[in-house]
Task: inverse folding
């Protein structure tokens, strides 16, 4: 190789290094029936004690609790069955990605999320075992139609967030991420816009949630469907994304008081939809919902017609 060419290549590699730091390449483009291959169905008892019966993949297809088309993946609760008070809970679905991810960007292009009294939808990431030692990142979570969304970390003891110096548009709540304190509230950030959760999210056709996990921070962004500022690589599902151009995140979790490499291990992506249970059931009355949560779920199947996720795509970049 001629020295001049070598020198040119070396200088190009050096020049591109800072850019590469925030550029990720498409690893998994999960659309429609792709969800069936990329996720495992977890037909387990709900760890949060919800009034649901999680079903396996065959059952979810047979009962139409999951449904795919070329550009949509639907995941829902049953909305036709009146439940016996002593029998199992309402059919629902919890899925976990087959792949594990460390540093990555995940983009959820979501048209609709489950709504209704008693619903507790979540899109989140956690380690396969030994919770909370491997960390948990909640990207979408809320209960009983109560807006807005919150993004939250849960960890073992010793990971906290600073009280200032966090460039984010959301509002920080608790700063201690330790799952063992504050009743496992975690360190959360409340989103500024009501249309980030529940019926108001659905009324505008949803939007995009994105999470970037690097060794120095975890960031979460939300763009409503009608936003003029959706980055084109988010909107169009590009082959690469460069998060530097995405503007101030909704939630920013820096590593200044939390060694992210130590507190966050390889994560699965989990999508779960429970009813009632520890959180949604616990605050059900305060949410302005009728009757009691379990009795409402048992006796009003039609109220869960809109308790579904509609994913346009899930794209993971590494
Ligand atoms: C699901 O259905 C397929 C094809 O009908 C069958 O081979 C498989 O054993 C079923 N799995 C379960 C868990 O029932
Ligand atoms: C299954 O669900 C999809 C999506 O909600 C719907 O379009 C379809 O009509 C349903 N199929 C049946 C047999 O109910
Ligand atoms: C039932 C269930 O698995 N619930 C989980 C859903 O997601 C949240 C994270 O947002 C977990 O904390 C729950 O345990």
Result:
């Amino acid at each position: 190789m001629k020295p001049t060419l070598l020198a040119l290549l070396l200088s190009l590699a050096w020049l591109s290094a800072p850019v590469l730091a925030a550029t990720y390449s498409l690893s998994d483009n999960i659309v429609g029936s792709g969800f069936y291959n990329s996720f495992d169905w977890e037909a387990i008892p709900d760890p949060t004690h919800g009034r649901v019966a999680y079903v396996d993949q065959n059952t979810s297809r047979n009962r139409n609790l999951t449904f795919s088309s070329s550009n949509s993946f639907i995941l829902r609760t049953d909305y036709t069955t009146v439940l016996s008070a002593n029998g199992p809970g309402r059919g629902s679905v919890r899925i976990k990605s087959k792949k594990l991810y460390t540093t990555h960007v995940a983009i959820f292009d979501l048209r609709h999320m489950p709504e209704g009294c008693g619903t507790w939808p979540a899109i989140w990431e956690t380690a396969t075992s030994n919770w909370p030692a491997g960390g948990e990142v909640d990207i979408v979570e809320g209960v009983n139609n109560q807006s807005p969304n919150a993004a939250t970390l849960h960890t073992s003891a010793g990971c906290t967030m600073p009280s200032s110096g966090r460039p984010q548009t959301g509002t920080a709540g608790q700063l201690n991420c330790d799952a063992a304190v504050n009743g496992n509230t975690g360190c959360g950030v409340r989103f500024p816009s009501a249309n980030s959760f529940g019926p108001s999210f659905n009324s505008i056709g949803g939007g995009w949630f994105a999470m970037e996990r690097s060794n120095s921070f975890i960031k979460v962004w939300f763009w409503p469907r009608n936003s003029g500022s959706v980055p084109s690589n988010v909107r169009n599902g590009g082959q690469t994304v460069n998060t530097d151009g995405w503007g101030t995140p909704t939630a920013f979790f820096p590593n200044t008081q939390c060694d992210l490499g130590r507190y966050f291990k390889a994560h699965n992506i989990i999508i779960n939809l429970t009813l009632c249970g520890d959180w949604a059931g616990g605050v059900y009355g305060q949410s302005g919902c009728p009757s009691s949560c379990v009795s409402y779920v048992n006796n009003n199947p039609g109220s869960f017609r809109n308790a579904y996720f509609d994913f346009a795509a899930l794209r993971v970049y590494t």
User: Anything to note?
Assistant: The chain has a mean pLDDT of 93. Residues 64, 67, 74 surround 2-acetamido-2-deoxy-beta-D-glucopyranose (ligand 2) (CB under 6 Å).
